[in-house]
# Entry
Amino acid sequence: MRWPGTTQAIEELVAEHYSSLYRYAYRLCGSSQEAEDLAQEAFFQAQVKWGQLRDVNRARAWLFTILRNVYLHKVRDRKMEKALPLDEVGDIPDRSPDPLPAIDPQRLQEALDELPEVFRTPIILFYFEDFSYRDIADQMVVPMGTIMSRLARAKSFLKNRLMQPAALVAGQPGEEDA
Amino acid sequence: MDCANARLLLNFVRTGELDPAEREALDNHLSACPDCAACAQAESRLDDALATAMQRVPFPAGLKGRILQRLAGKRRPGPWRWAAAAALVLAAGLGGLCGAQQWAARVRCAWMGGELHRRSLDIRSGNGGSPLQ
# Structure
């Protein structure tokens, strides 16, 4: 381990990526306290594994992969992952309403929490961090076609959940749908 | 380009994974096909709405400082760690010293035992001389 050489590099990594890593963690787990723990643990592991980062330009994807692994370990340890069965996630997206209303971020989180992690992760990365299909496939170690299929189904699921009247922002009455 | 191909390529517009030729072919198709153009617009609006909502995450104050603090805490050995390391070195040194003394005593005893045995054999064989010369 090369502490003196890596200290500055790690601090720069934190400065550049801590906010996006935290937001990713938050969308992944849905809790601010847990998201902070995940972000801290991810940076700590990055510090320990610094020698494994071969290309500094890939640091962001590397950090996101570390954070996801930390999250999956926690989920496994606590058996806390709760989500719909895969076949209930949805199919090909339907046509969106026109005009499209704004989406309540909290309702978005509730819908994300219902998705199995293998669907939740690609859709967060796709919308939140603008990773390419290839990047997401690399991070999740699955073929690109699988990512495209999961994204289409996850998007359809979110649309069905969020385009219902109770999911829309701007003081809509009836906060809970059936 | 037919509609099926156009709908497939629409998936790659947001991520910028179309090469210039594919992008041009898609644009040509969209300008000629109102159905696909409407689909592209609807998907783009949905993508924008989801991306906007996705990024609206409440952000805790002081997070960066806490992360750096934790990393520094794990990195730099605190005073108790220095004390523990010093105690370990001292214990190892003392242990080594005691061990060396015991080893020297054992060698000395063995040598003296051998010497006494040799002298007693000399006396028995009549070579004379004091056993403790």
